[in-house]
Design a protein that fits this description.
With 154 residues, the chain is mostly beta strands. The chain is built from one helix and eight strands, in the order H-E-E-E-E-E-E-E-E. The chain has a single domain (2-153), classed as Immunoglobulin-like (Sandwich), CATH 2.60.40.1090. The protein has one helix at 2-16, and strands spanning 19-26, 42-54, 62-67, 80-84, 87-94, 113-116, 122-133, 150-153. A five-stranded antiparallel β-sheet has the order 1-2-7-5-4, with no helix packed on it. The protein has a three-stranded antiparallel β-sheet with strand order 6-3-8, with no helix packed on it.
């Protein structure tokens, strides 16, 4: 009886296993050096890459990519924050060049990345991510960093 319970619990998972393996990586996201005299908004782009290996018997499957809040660990309002020794600077990541679709976990109006890995044995996709530092008058010279966790589920 116990053996059948284990088989029954695993069977639905095995039937849905359409993607065997997926990897995600992001090219460096670096706003570079900003001139303190201008303190205008700064915009950059980077690439998020996905590579999946599909089960040849069942074809591809769906995947989701979600982004956390970063080191600030506060719910998305209008921005994330990169932190330095003398404070922080507001920034955010977007799915679109118009800076409307904030990348996040799907809550509080944020957007997640979703897709289907197709039916080929291997699947590769690339998403352009748009970053923006907001214009401000109160940041100081220094190095500012944030650490985001990006999770790929399939």
């Amino acid at each position: 009886m116990y053996r059948y319970a284990v088989v029954l619990l695993l069977l639905p998972h095995l039937l849905q296993a359409e993607i065997l393996d997926c990897h995600l990586w992001i090219d460096p996201l670096d706003f570079g050096t900003q001139d303190q005299l201008y303190r205008q908004s700064a915009e950059i782009t980077t690439q998020l890459h996905i590579h999946c290996v599909n089960d040849p018997a069942t074809g591809g499957g769906h995947y989701r990519v979600v982004f956390d809040y970063g080191a600030a660990q506060h719910p998305f309002t209008s921005s994330r924050q990169i932190n330095g020794q003398r404070g922080g600077i507001a920034y955010n990541l977007y799915r679109d060049p118009s800076h409307i679709q904030v990348l996040g976990d799907g809550t509080a109006g944020t957007t997640i990345l979703t897709g289907h890995s197709g039916s080929a044995a291997e699947y590769r996709n690339r998403y352009t991510l748009y970053g923006r530092i907001f214009a401000t008058s109160d940041y100081q010279e220094g190095i500012y960093l944030d650490h985001l966790t990006v999770r790929l589920s399939y």
